[in-house]
Amino acid sequence: xxxxxxxxxxxxxxxxxxxxxxxxxxxxxxxxxxxxxxxxxxxxxxxxxxxxxxxxxxxxxxxxxxxxxxxxxxxxxxxxxxxxxxxxxxxxxxxxxxxxxxxxxxxxxxxxxxxxxxxxxxxxxxxxxxxxxxxxxxxxxxxxxxxxxxxxxxxxxxxxxxxxxxxxxxxxxxxxxxxxxxxxxxxxxxxxxxxxxxxxxxxxxxxxxxxxxxxxxxxxxxxxxxxxxxxxxxxxxxxxxxxxxxxxxxxxxxxxxxxxxxxxxxxxxxxxxxxxxxxxxxxxxxxxxxxxxxxxxxxxxxxxxxxxxxxxxxxxxxxxxxxxxxxxxxxxxxxxxxxxxxxxxxxxxxxxxxxxxxxxxxxxxxxxxxxxxxxxxxxxxxxxxxxxxxxxxxxxxxxxxxxxxxxxxxxxxxxxxxxxxxxxxxxxxxxxxxxxxxxxxxxxxxxxxxxxxxxxxxxxxxxxxxxxxxxxxxxxxxxxxxxxxxxxxxxxxxxxxxxxxxxxxxxxxxxxxxxxxxxxxxxxxxxxxxxxxxxxxxxxxxxxxxxxxxxxxxxxxxxxxxxxxxxxxxxxxxxxxxxxxxxxxxxxxxxxxxxxxxxxxxxxxxxxxxxxxxxxxxxxxxxxxxxxxxxxxxxxxxxxxxxxxxxxxxxxxxxxxxxxxxxxxxxxxxxxxxxxxxxxxxxxxxxxxxxxxxxxxxxxxxxxxxxxxxxxxxxxxxx
Length: 719
Known about the structure:
- The protein is of the alpha/beta class.
- Helices cover about 35% and strands about 15% of the residues.
- It has 24 helices and 23 strands.
- The strands form five sheets. The chain has a seven-stranded parallel beta sheet with strand order 19-20-18-21-22-17-23.
- A hairpin with a 2-residue loop joins strand 5 and strand 6 (about 140-150).
- The radius of gyration is 31 Å and the shape is globular.
- The protein starts with a helix and ends in a 6-residue tail after the last strand.
């Protein structure tokens, strides 16, 4: 206790000095009048001063979160304080606070004990000794907690998880938060990995994949500030609500202006579509809101999303496009009026010779523009105004008719040609119908004839765009993050690779949460094969920081019994309440749900989720709760914001979210059949602290009821 009081007083004195230094710098900056003139140099200086003001104001509330006492070889022991943003010393001495992304700060995350430590700096490898790792909690300038996670002079464990467990035990609100004070060694390796690498991260539920990726963006901007910009980075998220859910992490790290989008929204913008392709309101219900017996899992060759997302489909498009140049220029001379002719040979020479270095769509545009200029030159040779008028009229009609003989070099038009869904199809394109499964060809042809598109078509359309058009500089990215990447296709990633510099990707997901089996990948090899071995890296995050040990062990059993997965979550030592299995059949169903909800929220929890099997059941339960006076939010797939509190949603929309307490309804064999183990696993792993499974007469066989960490109420009749 005496040691703690001494450490607390020491840190309190240091915090007071730091706040005084920050306040002094802030006052000096605020004393400089804000420049509002038009001088460009002064505008840049004012922009820099404003950035410093903003950072110092943020630092004043929470200047740092950690202390590292380090002695570089041959130098004395020095305490370094680490924060979300660095704070310099106006007198040019050692920084008051070191930015968490700085090379020295990496020791705070990577050091796990031992007689020596080292880190990579611009000048080379720096070696020395770590004496102390200390976490501090400062909120609104007030020191709340001091905890040593390593102390060379202590008789305790080499490195303690006590502070990590404390932070993980905090209750959840409606936003994802940064983990900068608790980044673990295996997470830090990913965050600080080299830029020009396609990183593939397989992470179990709750391993912090998304948060690690967001911190990686902040690190890359710090480490490569001369090469990349935030505006040229993008995060691809599964839906707009998820974007809202993660929206506060980057601003907390002092990073703004990074693009955040769904693949559909971004693709529609590139293609100039009026709205993103939609599979319609029944798309998800088609796959999820039917019983297991109705929804038989068919082979990949029958799954349109899997086929159109494959590299096999890309190869089909490549073959289809091989003859595009030869079928572009109409095989006839152009005659704007009688007696004047532009030969096919000359037009072909323009197309295949002078403009060959342009993409094919630009070549077509250039050739047609040149023909138009040629017409204007020829019209000047007209002997009279009357002849000029007559020739001009004929030329306009014939020029338009000639242009129509060229194939329409737009992605959608070419795609329609592929599926023979375009009126007056161009015979110059090869017939690829035998290369595409008949059922997929027929279904695609039918809706393309109606000028409709689906999400599964976007990768192909974007690929066609890149083949026939130039990718302009403002379309390219310095780095791309793909979240929930197990639901992406290899073709989507291959297309994105055409828009990103140096294969700079962070691709993250969890195969055990691959519930969208009709379109996602089954193995990360499908992604890694897109790159050369030296261009890619793979990390497996197996520690789960989200849920209690009881919840994780329960969910692991579902994976082992129902999926046969061998990559299971390793829980952090944080124990909680047992998982509750409670009978809630027939007339008692709604009353049991209300009772479970009231019990779960009787403490200090801020967020809870009621997860149903179908959207229809979610709507019905929501209406019931509203009728009972419960303030709840329905998440139906159309929401753009996550409101926190009590949420009611189908389990398949819960992926990526987390809640203090989760109550799953109707967990029985009629709702969760043999092919639904991953779906149930996703639902269970949304819970941080408390998990309830309310069930009917019979539980799925992959739920372990012989676990001592489970409380069973009103024992069900097991199958």
